[in-house]
Amino acid sequence: MTTMAQREVIAQAPLLVLAEKALGTFCGPVPDEAAHAAKRCLIDWLGVVIAGAREEPTRLLRAALEKAGGTDPRRSPFFNALMLGTASHALDYDDTDYINLIHVSSTLFPALFALDTQCAGGMALLKAVISGFEAEDRIGVYLGRRLTAQGWHVSGVIGHLGSALATGLMLSLPADRLRHAMAISGTAASGLIAAFGTMSKPLQLGRAAADGLMAALLAREDFTGPEELLEGDPGFGRPFVGEAIRDWSRIGTEWGRPYAILSNSFKPHASCMITHPVIDAAVALHETMRRENRSAAEIAEVSCEVTRLAPKVAGYRQPKTGLEGKFSVAYCCVSGLLTGRATPDRFVDPVVGSSETRALLSRVTVTPCENVGEQQAIVSVRFTDGQTRRHETRMAKGNPENPLSDAELEGKFLALTEPVLGSDAKRIARDIWAFQDVADAGRWFAALPVLI
Questions:
Q1: Reported confidence tier of residue 119, pLDDT bands at 50, 70, 90
Q2: Tens of pLDDT, residues 276-314
């Protein structure tokens, strides 16, 4: 049983608790299912980063860095993490901790692979990811939803701390230095929901990865940060959510029982997670229309009943660009109805702005409902002949309660990477499923014909 004195220590030093718990995970054995979950994160992340490296936000960032530096910025771990993190999120197709709304993999893998991890085995990297994921999730329990309510992009805020912790573990930092790494990274934490639908949203993930890496490197040199970052006043809480959070006594309880990475969510659609239930319903209705030999021209009206959070994070009513389309419940519904999919090719400017899209978009009504959960949606279609069809999504595909299988994840990876890697894509997928046996994770990644 935890004594009052022990609870007081935990409440006063949450970053140190996280550091010590993470070291325990990193230096000891982890359950096979946690290691496998980390490999699922890796295959999903590598697919989106290879495809995302060719997206406009990443290309423009690379061009800007090259012009500013006069030399190849990819030789810098900091700039590499920045570009990898931005590429990770450029398609908004990366995995999500749906409980706290954090894109954890895109804050961890970019920093870990940008770091000089020569001679670090694959299992060490997987354990760093498991630890970083656990820490971000636990901070998210206290702050995630509250950050969203205040207009903050959770991944851009909390991601810095997880990135710093994971890279610090790979640098073999002791607990006190890990604590400072997280504290240093927290001074740079930021990210706005206002950036959704713009190139600045993926940049926020790049900054989280790069700032975390920088913080770990600084901590290794005995650079210091505010040790009472989370519990202090003013610390993290007051400026971000309007009040100091004093009691962090639960931050380390039941660590790894089970590991939070086992509850990760993977995206079957290349858009904001909150749009996925609507897409699932629209895709089902597309199949119904196909069987009944109905065309989109016969649709008179579309009604979408969605969670009340949807307008806040995916409320573009008339998206003008592919990026805005990813954050438009109405457009995502239209895409599902018209084509039966919401793959990356559906989120490009010409498609979003097409006359067919605009015509159907004008017939879509989106209604936030108190009784509709975040993983739920109801889409109803009324046709010109007066008939209606309705589909209810009770649990969006990709959620842990309705998960993507390993085969489906690999299929997503191959769809994203085969146009770039060709036949190498299948070989790389095999490597990932056996990543615990990779002797040198850094060299393995550097040898990929990826990239950035």
A1: low
A2: 999 999 999 999 999 999 999 999 999 999 999 999 899
Checking if the pLDDT of 364 tops 50, the result is yes
More confident residue, 252 or 450: 252
Average pLDDT, the chain: 94
Q: Where are the alpha helices (DSSP H) in 292-400?
A: 310-313, 322-325, 329-339, 349-352, 355-361
Count of Cβ atoms closer than 10 Å to residue 242 Cβ: 10
Give the number of other Cβ atoms within 10 Å of residue 259's Cβ: 22
CA distance 282 to 274: 14
Measure the CA–CA gap between 108 and 95, rounded to whole angstroms: 12
Indicate the length of the chain as a whole number: 452
Residue in the structure block whose two tokens are 């997987």: 126
Three-class secondary structure of residue 415 per DSSP: helix
Report the DSSP beta bridge partners of residue 369.
307
Peptide bond into 344 cis (omega under 30): no
In Å, how far are 152, 274, 281, 297, 372 from 368, measured between CA atoms? 21, 12, 16, 26, 8
Kind and range of the H or E element at 432? helix 424-433
* Torsion, Cα of 365, 367, 371, 377 (10° steps): 40
Any alpha helices (H) in 150-263, and if so which ranges?
154-170, 175-186, 200-220, 237-241
